Structure formats: structure tokens, C-alpha cells
Amino acid sequence: MATHAIKVPDLGEGIAEVELVAWRVQPGDTVVEDQVLADVMTDKATVEIPSPVAGRVLALGGEVGQQLAVGAELIRIDVAAQGEAVQVPAAPARAPAPEPAPAVAAAAATASAPAVRTPPSAGKPLAAPAVRHRAAVLGIDLQQIQGSAADGRILHEDLDAWLLRRQRAQAPSPPRYAERNDEEAVPVTGVRRRIAQRMQDAMRRIPHFTYVEEVDVTELELLRARLNERWDSERAHLTLLPLLVRAIVLAVPRFPQINARFDDETGVLTRHGAVHVGIATQTAVGLMVPVLRHAEARDPWSSATEIARLAEAARAGRATRDELSGSTLTVTSLGALGGIASTPIINAPEVAIVGVNRIVQRPVMKDGAVAARRMMNLSSSFDHRVVDGQLAAEFVQAVRASLECPALLFAE
Fold first, then answer.
1. What are the structural domains, with CATH classification, of the chain?
2. Given the residues 34, 232, 322, 388, the one annotated as active site
3. 102 phi and psi, to 5 degrees?
4. pTM score > 0.85 for this model?
5. CB 330 within 8 A of CB 381
6. Among 49, 389, 24, which residue's Cα sits nearest to residue 207?
7. Is the dihedral of CA 176, 179, 185, 189 positive or negative?
8. For all residues of the chain together, what is the average pLDDT?
């Protein structure tokens, strides 16, 4: 037996360890060169680790959620098994799926069989030997399963999904008012663990204060609609976000203390001329903050195009380390779910974050008369060690002035 140990690679300057967030293979699986073996998490992004060799997996170097040092053994592969017919063991038993919610179970109980998708071709399904063995043990016809891998290959996760659909289809409908005593322990791993660590550290080290100001965006929304009507076929669709970024860019030169990063260990505040705006983005694995670089050099359409690209990359897990670092000020928004006010947490080591709340139409006194206006709150948090309350209020008022008179956004 000739074995090859694959170690955790050096993924960038300053990265001493990574978190193991997912295994793509199990002991006994055969792998080919460049096949993804595992996903690991650095302090900013998820990275796929490919295999430099072909062979059979002998042993895994850690459990999901475990921290592994750079250079530690990740996986061991029998390279002598390359090209051989390998007898693989059944995949490790999966934990039973959680009991479905009553509404889901009631709807599923009427189905006679789990829903399936038609395979992309009538040929032999692509699957690793371990997956085929497990499917045979469970009595699953692989022809009835659509593989989720890029090449249509069927994974263990696809078998799990099929089993869950079958379980739901066969589950009886529970009593409507039955007591529930089930509970589920969910390990906090991967991106969610990183978010928890960063949020805890930010709240512990930074004395936050939040300033809330309402903004009349009636004229801004009218202008935005007209611009989209005129330019949508030629330029990016404008949302509120790129216009807000432009208002922030116009305010920053008057308030350099806001567009800054504070190193509390050295006591140094670095003010930045460049405005690198972090765009808080919700993804399936948690909140990520891709960075719109040099917003000061972009018009609203350029910002809209780049924001859309960054958000799509973050949600698809393709954002690079560089795209997720280096912001000087962050914007966060929950869109239509934004509530009337919030207390956003600063994205350290920045010193400010601008939170956008939802737009609502309500009666407002204007020029001595009641008028229907579209109103929105800005909820912004600041690091009180380096930003005083008056400075923060003046900054937000400057942003407000540009939003309430949107012609200023396009004035040189």
C-alpha cells in the first residue's frame, strides 16, 4: 500500500488555522485528481481543498467544526488503489431527519411517493462506489435521483434528500394541538461561528452608540423610477442602495473621522481617502460583507452593477478573500423587512455602520399642510471612542440632505 498524506495548505498571509466545515468524501471512497475533498473556512471565506492525487480514501484528519492548523494532516489516500476495483464499505449512518412541522407533514401526507426529478440523461447515473453501495443497501434506484454535483454526480446528500422526502410522504399527520417535547442541538460551525466570534468581539471591545434619523425619500424614489424607466435597457437597475452609497461618498470628505479604521491595540486611527463600502449581505450560510471598492470613483450605475455582482458571488460562495476584506465603512439593510429602527453592530475595525430601514408612506406635515410622503429611517452606529455624538449627527444629516434633494447626488 502506497499512501499519500494531504495537508492543510497555506491559504494566505496571516492564516495559521482553518475550520473544517464539510467533508466531500468518506473513508473507502475512490477519488480522482482535482476532486474536491473538503471545505474549510478561513476568517473570511470558504475554500475548497482539491486532491492532488487519485486513489482511495483511508482516513480523515478531523471532524466537522474542528480547527486545523496549516500544515496539519487533512486526509490520507491510498494511491496504489488508483484504477483498481475497490470494495468500499457502506457510508456511515446518517442521523434521522428531524420530525417535519405539522403544516409540512399534513401537506405531505397526501402524497403517495416522494417527489423526484427526471435525470438529465438516460445513461448510467454518475456516483462514487460508496454512494452506489449505500443506495443498494437502502433499495434506492439511482435512475430516479438527480445528482446535485456540477457534473450530475449523485452524492450522499442526494440520497439523504430522497430519504427525507420519502419519510415526509409516509409520515402520518400529527394531532393539531399535540404537545411537542422534541429538541435539536445544532453545532455553531463554519460561517455562523465566525459571525458569532466577530459580533461578540465587536460588542465587547467597542462602545457603540446608535443615532436614528428619518429621511423623506419621496423625491428620491420618484427620480429613481424615472432613471430606471429611461436607462434600464442600457444600464444597471438602480435600487436605493447605490444612491445611498453616493450620498455617503459626498459626505465623507467633510467627516474623515467616519471613513476610518481604528486599531485599539496601538491606539491609531487611520483615516482613508478611498471609500471602500462594505455591503452586508445575507447568504444561506450567514451574513457576509463583500466590499464595493473605490465607491468615490463610481457613479450610481457602476455601483449598482458591482453591488449586484458582489452579492451574487457571496451568496454562491464564490467571493474571494480580497472581495470580503478591506472595507472602511459598512452599509446594512434588510430591505422591505427593515423595521422602523435598528441598532447595527459595527464591522470592526471600522468606526461606523449605516443601517437602512424600510420605506413607508405616511402623512407628514409639509409647508403647513398634511401630505403623503415616503419616509425611511437611517439607523447608524458609531464607535464612541473616536466619534462624538455631534460629529455622528452632522454626518447623518449630510447624508440625509443629499437623499432629500437627490439632484445633489449628480452635482459635481
1. 2-79 (2.40.50.100), 207-409 (3.30.559.10)
2. 388
3. -55, -45
4. no
5. no
6. 389
7. positive
8. 86
In 3D space, the residue among 200, 189, 256 whose CA is nearest the CA of residue 40 turns out to be 189
Give me the pLDDT at residue 86, please.
41
**H or E, element range at 105:** helix 102-108
DSSP state of 350: B
- Kindly report, residue by residue over 89-131, the tens digit of the pLDDT: 444 444 444 444 444 333 343 333 344 444 444 568 888 877 8
Q: Which of 4, 133, 237, 384 is catalytic?
A: 384
- The confidence score (pLDDT) of residue 274 equals 97
Rounding to the nearest 10 degrees, give the CA dihedral for residues 219, 223, 224, 226: 140
Instruction: Give residue 208's pLDDT.
Output: 97
> Cα separation of 269 and 405, whole Å?
32
Residue 63: alpha-carbon gap to chain centroid: 23
Residue 151 annotated to the active site? no
Residue 257 has pLDDT above 90, yes or no: yes
pLDDT greater than 80 at residue 29 = yes
Residue 388: active-site member: yes
Q: Give the mean model confidence (pLDDT) for residues 61-79.
A: 91
Rounded alpha-carbon distances, angstroms, from residue 304 to 236, 239, 347, 359, 378:
6, 7, 22, 19, 20
